[in-house]
Amino acid sequence: MPLFTIINPVCGHKSGSSFFDTHVFPRLNDQKITVDYNLRTSSPDDAPNFIREYFTTNRLDHNPPTEITIILGSGDGTLHEIIEAIRPYTTEYHNLLIRFVLIPCGTANALYFSLFPDTIDAAVDTSNPSKRLRSLEEFLAGKEAKTLSLAVTTVSNHNESKTSINTAAVVTSTALHACILRDSESLRDEHPGVERFKVAAQKNSTVWYYSQVKLHPCQSSGKVEIYNPDSNAFSPLESHGGSKEVIMEGPFVYFTATTNVDRLESTFRVLPLMRSLPPPSPTCDIAVVRPLRCSAMKQDTEHFRTEFAAQTWKVLHGAYEDGAHVRYRYEANGEITNEGNGQNVVEYVRCGGWEWIPMEDDPNAHILCCDGEIVSIEQGGTASCAVDFKSKFYIYA
Ligand SMILES: Nc1ncnc2c1ncn2[C@@H]1O[C@H](COP(=O)(O)OP(=O)(O)OP(=O)(O)O)[C@@H](O)[C@H]1O
Question: Mind listing the GO molecular function terms for this protein (predicted)?
């Protein structure tokens, strides 16, 4: 059962290497745990290349790998790259299991702070290292690791040929969130912290995204479900003609799906029900905002797009207020309120998968984000996302 340590020394505030030397390796030494492979990345492709080399060497040696534990010091992006590198081998090696111990060293650390929400002050206060060692302590205590649900998105072109398959443990998104991630990367040096996401959000705040979405039912209920703030429960989302599939028409402003996390930054709880009303079996939770559901938005014009940007900001601020946005409703004049029985501002959907079919003449609707990786959907193409019910990935949490 090989044990790897992989450290991305440049992510977040670039403190991963020293944190491991000061806190992680000494804890392992205390417990007399030997690390079999230790990698500090020196370039963006190092972690996935290292994984592929490991599997290639094992194949040549006729030594099929079975259970691997990876103590990972990084953000969500490096985790994503490692999962993508390993996943193709899970079909070849049926007994392969991957267990992660996650040490949050990145910018957002969405997975870590979702799994350990009582440690979120560690995002800004680094004076208490034990808050970043919780996953390690679970591992050292011999606890059982939890399943990491994966969302697998197949992107196809206009001929329905696959152009890519992307796996996400944290977030799969289109619309505003995907465009924020597309634009925030170029701001990394100027803004090493989460401010870069806000700067990029401002740039995209008046864009509407034209697409059709097909939602597929949850495995547990056989239905697509929607959150009802009155009952604080999910109920079936009605479809037309008896089909189990539900169709949503655009334009969209927000379309962000997760399988494990309730937040995308320590305090940005955009899908809070993933933890407060957890699904009985792996699902996609999706936060959807469609501007034309607001009665004050009469049509798609520059004027209404600018007006709706204020509503979008309110929704995003609500996510920072412990996920309050999922209870927001429209008043008759289109204002957002916490009360009353107007239309939900956010359609909080729970489903087994979804298909995003962008309108050909809308380039912004052709951007997909899988755990921070930006994928372009070709003109006439689609992105189809489904929960992987046979995940071989686990995390100590
Ligand atoms: N030595 C390196 N030099 C430059 N880039 C690297 C190196 N090692 C890894 N990377 C790249 O750094 C990128 C960012 O890493 P990661 O996502 O883990 O951190 P983050 O973006 O700071 O945090 P988060 O994803 O939690 O917001 C990854 O895409 C990875 O490929």
Answer: lipid kinase activity
